[in-house]
């Protein structure tokens, strides 16, 4: 210490701690000269002692003016050392760095000034302190004092210049420091960080792209900053990196994809758009390399397809199509089950477009990997059935297309129809709202006759008689009105002369017996008019209720449509179609006279040529004598109205109705059920006076029913 004091005059030390800046500056200039002389003589021991004195007695002093003097003195000593300063940096820099966190803003300001001057002298040699300097500058960039911020910015620019020209900079050591600070919210710090990322990325020898996953999330986080300038800087940096990715032969998509998937669901629109744009480029560039991340990407894309921002929707759809165009091999990191799981979850989305695209994915997977998809059928089947209740017609159409594709196999066809019936049973509103729509579409996709035969077979053994009756009435209305079933109707019209028509009629008959109105409609369609008369005459009081009359009203109106034009034309020949005439008069007698249907049918019957009807024929028809015995025409016999057999009584194509036993037995079951309910209603005191409540299945009924609908 004595040697150092002998070198530095006491007046210099006194002025170095003066409150006036000019005196401290003059003292610093004298120290610079002293150090220069010592350096020229090679007396580094005294130089070291002098630097130690400036650090311990001044830079670390509790007195603010002493600290200011110490900082300017250390900078002056460095200037005096010039090219030999690097060997003393271990003594010079730490006190300056320590002053960056000083409570006095002026001390912090002079610390910036001191380090600036030191850096100008040593340039690349002080790179060994880069991480500490970066950490200090990061804090100073958000300093509360404007002057300190300005000084820090000047120092920051100099440090950037030094780093870009220095070949000793270690990016590997710097990245952890950068990563730690990327989620800071302070706008000044964010600007500071983006500035450094941009500068380092511009250096050819520094591979920032390789470390992009370490700070990519932070950059995306800045896209939602309240400051427009920060958003623009972050977006500019991201755009530059994306361009580099396009030009790079090797990219680590994995970690970045995970970040992008998360950011695609960000609340901020600009962040979502940028993330989905990046994913779009990744899909185009990565191709097969993205198989391990296929599921994550799909999970991010599907919700964006319904985004409220049009730009996001457009990019998401483009990305979705590009992803679907990649045909993967299930044995090569492509998990069909996981993709199906994502699509299944998205079927619960509130947005129609997302649900539709999820169904498109299931359809695509089914077409490409049918065997693999069937392995996961139990996981998606229930969800697909529930989707039939979707509010969107487009969604229901896609679901039906998928079901139809799976039902190409007979086993899955039966399974589909069974579960569809179960869904109708559980949710009657589905049958009311979408039943006709669903069944008609399945008829188009899977052959109408096949669908109706399967439905009829299941309904024939249905235990819930009320449901069977409602279901048959619905099927009957579809059969009579849907354009998709025109061929089926034509086949049924030939039931008396065509073996295929007869077989179809018989396959429907048993289940149609659940509803008197349905069986009458079927007989009129199949032109089995005599049996229609028998059914009408067998009706009892329990059959003719309000529901029956509503169904009858619909039928009478349908008789006036083009579908039954053939029947109306047959009325021009009442001699030949005596049973038809009797059946229609029977329906007329059932209808209330004041009803609109009664008036419609009566007007129609008034147009029948009355002089063509033989009274004797009507009498014998009314007595129940077979119509084949009424008309004698060249020895031919007739099984039903207008069906003459020229082979002397050969009835092999005729339908034998020995009695109404099957229809009566079925109706007897319905009557017994109605009576038991009436008795129960009379005994019960808990039910309301308005009568029975809705037939919505109870939980216990559903459990019993579900037991009968098991997967095959």
TrEMBL record:
Belongs to the VAC14 family. It is found in: Endomembrane system. InterPro entries: ARM-like, ARM-type_fold, HEAT_type_2, Vac14, VAC14_Fig4p-bd. This is Vacuolar protein 14 C-terminal Fig4-binding domain-containing protein. Residues 429-608 form the Vacuolar protein 14 C-terminal Fig4-binding domain. HEAT repeats lie at residues 92-127. Residues 668-712 are annotated as: Disordered. It comes from Hibiscus sabdariffa (roselle). Residues 702-712 have a biased composition (Basic and acidic residues). Keywords: Membrane, Repeat. It comes from the Eukaryota. Pfam families: HEAT_EF3_N, Vac14_Fab1_bd, Vac14_Fig4_bd. Its main location: membrane.
